[in-house]
Amino acid sequence: HVQLVESGGGSAQAGGSLRLSCAASGYTYNRNCMAWFRQAPGKEREGVSRITSGGGKTYYADSVKGRFTASRDNAGNTLFLQMNSLKSDDTARYYCATGAWSYWGMGTQVTVS
After folding, report:
1. What is the pLDDT of residue 53?
2. Which of 6, 10, 48, 51 stands the most exposed, by the fewest C-beta atoms within 10 Å?
3. Is residue 2 within 8 Å of residue 27, measured between CB atoms?
4. Which of 108, 83, 102 is closest to 33 using CA atoms?
């Protein structure tokens, strides 16, 4: 079955960096578009980034454009999100998703202070 496991979250100071990972298994990873979403307490879930199956195209929410970079390692079935110049507004639980967003991981918490 499809399994997505996020890691790399934690606490960071404003202006700092974190790198999230999403390990995928149970499906043909390199044929699927993948995405990062986040949800802060009391707010709706929002899309952060999307990356095509081959990794050739990436899309970002305006709020993270220029600060976050999504990438994928198709050999290792892993999705990444490099987050730089973190802001307190980036505090949220971050999730990876695939399969037209039918499949989700449990998320990893990012806290920026």
Report:
1. 86
2. 10
3. yes
4. 102
Torsion, Cα of 86, 90, 94, 99 (10° steps):
-100
| Residue length of the chain | 113
Q: Encode pLDDT of 32-80 as tens digits.
A: 899 999 999 999 999 999 999 888 899 999 999 999 999 999 887 999 9
End-to-end CA distance of the chain: 37
Let me know: does 46 contact 95? Beta carbons within 8 Å.
no
Q: In the structure, what pLDDT confidence band is assigned to residue 27 with cuts at 50, 70 and 90? A: confident
- 86 burial class (0-12, 13-18, 19+ CB within 10 angstroms)? buried
| Pair 86, 18: CB distance under 8 Å | yes
**Closest CA relative to residue 93, chosen from 80, 106, 108, 103:** 108
Return d(Cα 95, Cα 89) in angstroms, integer.
Answer: 16
